[in-house]
Model the fold of this input.
Amino acid sequence: MIQEPVVQEPAARQGGRQRDPATDSAIIEAVLDMVAAGATLTGLSLVAIAKQAGVSRNSVYRRWKTKDELYLDVLATINEPRPAPDGAGTREDLAAVLRTLADRVVDVRASSVLRALNAEAATFPRLHRRYFEEIVAPRREAMTAVLRRGVERGELRDDVDLDLVAELLVSPLLARMASGSTDHLDPVRDTRRIVDLVLRGAGAPDDDA
Amino acid sequence: MIQEPVVQEPAARQGGRQRDPATDSAIIEAVLDMVAAGATLTGLSLVAIAKQAGVSRNSVYRRWKTKDELYLDVLATINEPRPAPDGAGTREDLAAVLRTLADRVVDVRASSVLRALNAEAATFPRLHRRYFEEIVAPRREAMTAVLRRGVERGELRDDVDLDLVAELLVSPLLARMASGSTDHLDPVRDTRRIVDLVLRGAGAPDDDA
Amino acid sequence: MIQEPVVQEPAARQGGRQRDPATDSAIIEAVLDMVAAGATLTGLSLVAIAKQAGVSRNSVYRRWKTKDELYLDVLATINEPRPAPDGAGTREDLAAVLRTLADRVVDVRASSVLRALNAEAATFPRLHRRYFEEIVAPRREAMTAVLRRGVERGELRDDVDLDLVAELLVSPLLARMASGSTDHLDPVRDTRRIVDLVLRGAGAPDDDA
Amino acid sequence: MIQEPVVQEPAARQGGRQRDPATDSAIIEAVLDMVAAGATLTGLSLVAIAKQAGVSRNSVYRRWKTKDELYLDVLATINEPRPAPDGAGTREDLAAVLRTLADRVVDVRASSVLRALNAEAATFPRLHRRYFEEIVAPRREAMTAVLRRGVERGELRDDVDLDLVAELLVSPLLARMASGSTDHLDPVRDTRRIVDLVLRGAGAPDDDA
DNA sequence: AGTTAAACGAGACGGTACGTCTGGTCTTATT
DNA sequence: AATAAGACCAGACGTACCGTCTCGTTTAACT
Done:
């Protein structure tokens, strides 16, 4: 799991001043703020981050050798695991799974980081892989599980491509995250509307025959 | 329209060597290639672009004072207008409109630029606005027109939010563009499948009542 | 001799527009003015000279391939030969020879060029050699001739080093040229005073024994 | 006095790495060497100096914002004050004062810098003024004092222009410095000969009447 | 309490890239 | 063919960072 930051504990501890934990978070906050303000992952430098955090360069470099490692810890901050939906019904379960995503999309700093990460995946392969393993994959599995159960329950057609359905459900939120048009998004209402429309379809009933 | 590049024609022409048009395109190609290779809009420098284009710095700065202006011309390159769908039927028209988008998504260089532009919208507001006016808005109108006609024809329900339907149709492609997972996308097949699923819905028929 | 400029006559003259002789002198004047204004020989560029002369770069490069060649022609402009003194008397002859030098020292443009040339002798060896052969050597010979005649006539001691006497006579003017403190120099009066003092000496008569 | 270089001490010293004093002198040495090798004051760039000194550009710019300021410190290096002559006799005192100058003339680096400075006085007015105040003026006063005392003692005529005598004494050395023909100069012997000749005069004794 | 060791801010340092400017060459249109 | 205008490449210059390093200072653990 990503939960545990990789800030290296210095080996043997026999004396000396302690690291200020406030510095750790000040730096990570600085990254989140700057990225949310439009900075690029590549464009950010440890120096600039230090300045924004009100901390000496030294204090940043002491903790992370590279931006890559720092960003791993930043990414860990974003992931906020949720319990699996309770299985009340397919419609509600889908909405619940989507909510997890929608909440992150609405969080400006989180969505900014993820948007930046997508745009620069090639530059940060390790970071991008981690993003997939820790954030994307679990959600996808949760979604798939709900969909499969929906078919079993007879609440979903059994002749549809579930992967496509999942993509259809998730994409509106992802697209908003990608474009940054996150303002008018109401996590509760909009996830509900998306689920409804995907389940019901937009075509006229006759048209289905 | 964006079609006409803004490369400034120097005022009065009475003598002097002519600008090499090959240089213009070499520079724009360089930008497209570098962005497709993972570069950031902010991260690119006119110097690096010149190097990649095999052109002197001077020749770049002579044409564009800022990256912003250069990118405007790059963006113009991407926009490839398509005729409106012929109106054979809602299903076919929707697929046709989506195709325009899907083709751009599949084009690595185009989608890379747009992905980068989305990620750095804050840094290039003028560019982003232009992107909306010239590329996004026309497609959206085309899509809306088709949908409205579908309702009039009775091929679409009249109780659905057409904006949401449009978003549902478009988002899978946008999301792929955003994440760069563009490899397995088949413009013809996949647009068809998306349209079908959105029209028909994924829910079991009984469930609709 | 330096008198004949080395401006290359274009080989065969078969037709086409004629060179504008005004351009030649405009360029040389430009050099003189710029050097007098403080420019360095190395620091001047043909481009800057063209601009100052109000002439296209082309027109300069067509005439002189290098600064070196151009400066040779500039130097030729400075040398203004004078007839040998008439031999009325040593005192008058010395003053006459010094006058030639003093007049050049007073000419701001000439002295500026020579001062610059001295400072950058290492960079323009050919030019510096030419300067010696064409300007310095003739004057020195003239001076030596007058001094030798003075000894023969019994107007000068026969136990002094004539080279040193010559140096003593010439140096005040050269030093002024070198330092640029040329303002308060009156060629007629000051050469006279220098000659008088050198002949007579500053020591009290008794002191000589 | 000029003795104290103007390398700016950053105001408050509370921390940070110390400047390497070896870097200071390496840079100044570089300037002296390059000017002695024929470089122009204007032509030198802080970049070239840094390269020659084997130091990063940064380290130069950190110390001096402009060439002007750097050259002030270079000039300070050249000035080497001497005690006033002891007053044994006018002849000896004059020789002693001239020696100070002759030694500087013989020092290739010092004379190169001063020659360059004279040639480019217009470009570096502040530097040139300083040169006068710190180097020229004191020597001139020393010289004048000796001469005046010579008159009082009856060792010099009382009807000569002492300023002219001073100029006559000093100019041969200055002229050599200006022309760079410094090789065959023997400070001890030549100053002596100059003083002797100026005191005694070159004219035949009868000629004075 | 004194010693030791590390955290911390400040800033020197070498290196690299950027955008500007200029120099000399080449090309085009005009005279 | 000479000229003016200007595109073009090459390279230097001064600036701005970046990441490393070395200081002097402060804080905490361990004698």
